[in-house]
Design a protein that fits this description.
Length: about 375
């Protein structure tokens, strides 16, 4: 199974649990904000952490973590083009990660690190390929919800360089329109051939942009129909990458809605075969028993809990609570356990899983 547990996520997950474990998630866009604004936000976060550490942990441990945090902040890379940072520090571990999407500030001090935002960051960058077709040019991009990078290909970028390659019997045609149609078919065949290794390498869905005429030619000959999720008709010869993002935005949103529907279909199928746990208490129980294949959770759902003497059982937090069995966010612990066992995580919008109490776990068959 393809899991989102990348090396950087696994490094944080596998860090030795040692209190106090400080997780700081902050917006961090040096290219968009002044260094003074960022420095002020970092200072405020560090001050908040220092205060809580001194109030709740022995001075020796607090001093070690505060010193490490200060050094990490001092050495941050202000030349990055990322949008957020995740700072993890404990008496025995330290790590800074630069993230691709904007995240809201979050500071958590517990016995383990917050990994939800790392997983969420990876999952939110829905990747796809874009094929832009026109009589003047063929362009292929690797895209996500934030950026587009052009992929260089070997085929002619225009239909018309092939004109001299037409067989003589075709070149003698007086019907110029027939001549153009054959040129176009030859061109889209070449483009389709170029797509073969790209699709095999990336295994991503494909958007095809172009006029109805050239898209029609392509749709008739392509061998990659299963990879195409949308034909977007129009003339995009002069479209910039910024304009391209705006063109694709509603289609990407629709794609995400379709994806949510597919997840709900999987959940319903798992329920029919008695391979589904819903609600945080049931999901916790099955995740701790290593049954989790796919966890689907609303992106902002959190659940503070109290763990019983049985590790498989949690209760809703009650005051006063036992500090040593208190879990600030049971959802984050479930995410970590599912990833550790080779499962995967998908986030959906708030309200999508209302019927399932905001969280659902599909079990291994």
């Amino acid at each position: 199974m393809n899991t989102i547990a990348t090396p950087e996520i696994r490094e944080v997950m596998e860090a030795v649990h040692y209190r106090p474990a400080v997780s700081i998630i902050l917006p961090f866009e040096p290219k968009m904000s002044s260094k003074f604004e960022i420095a002020s936000a970092l200072k405020a976060a560090a001050t908040k952490v220092e205060k809580e550490l001194k109030n709740n942990y022995p001075n020796e441990l607090s001093s070690i973590v505060i010193e490490k945090l200060s050094r990490l902040i001092k050495d941050l890379n202000f030349g990055t083009h990322k949008k957020s940072i995740a700072i993890y520090v404990s008496p025995v571990f330290e790590k800074v990660l630069y993230l691709d999407i904007a995240l809201e500030e979050k500071i958590i001090i517990d016995e383990s690190f917050e990994i939800r935002d790392l997983v969420y960051c990876k999952k939110q960058l829905h990747k796809f390929l874009i094929l832009m077709l026109s009589s003047k040019e063929c362009r292929i991009f690797l895209g996500n919800s934030e950026n587009f990078a052009r992929i260089l290909i070997n085929t002619h970028t225009s239909i018309f360089p092939n004109e001299n390659d037409i067989p003589e019997r075709v070149a003698n045609f007086t019907n110029i329109q027939d001549r153009k149609e054959i040129l176009m078919d030859k061109f889209v065949h070449q483009v389709d051939n170029e797509l073969e290794p790209i699709l095999n390498n990336y295994h991503l869905p494909l958007f095809v942009l172009g006029t109805k005429r050239i898209s029609g030619h392509f749709s008739k000959i392509t061998r990659h129909t299963n990879a195409i999720i949308e034909y977007i008709h129009g003339n995009y010869e002069e479209t910039t990458t910024h304009e391209l993002k705006q063109v694709l935005e509603p289609y990407i949103k629709n794609w995400q809605n379709t994806f949510h529907k597919e997840l709900l279909t999987k959940i319903e199928a798992a329920a029919d075969t008695k391979k589904l746990a819903t609600g945080i208490k049931n999901v916790w129980h099955d995740a701790m028993n290593l049954k989790g294949k796919l966890l689907v959770v609303e992106k902002n759902y959190m659940y503070a809990a109290q763990q019983s003497s049985n590790k498989d059982i949690i209760y809703k937090i009650a005051h006063p609570y036992n500090t040593f069995s208190f879990i600030k966010d049971a959802v984050d612990d479930v995410i970590e356990k599912v990833l550790e066992n080779g499962g995967d995580i998908e986030f959906v919008d708030e309200g999508v899983l209302t019927k399932y109490n905001h969280i659902a776990l599909i079990e291994y068959y």
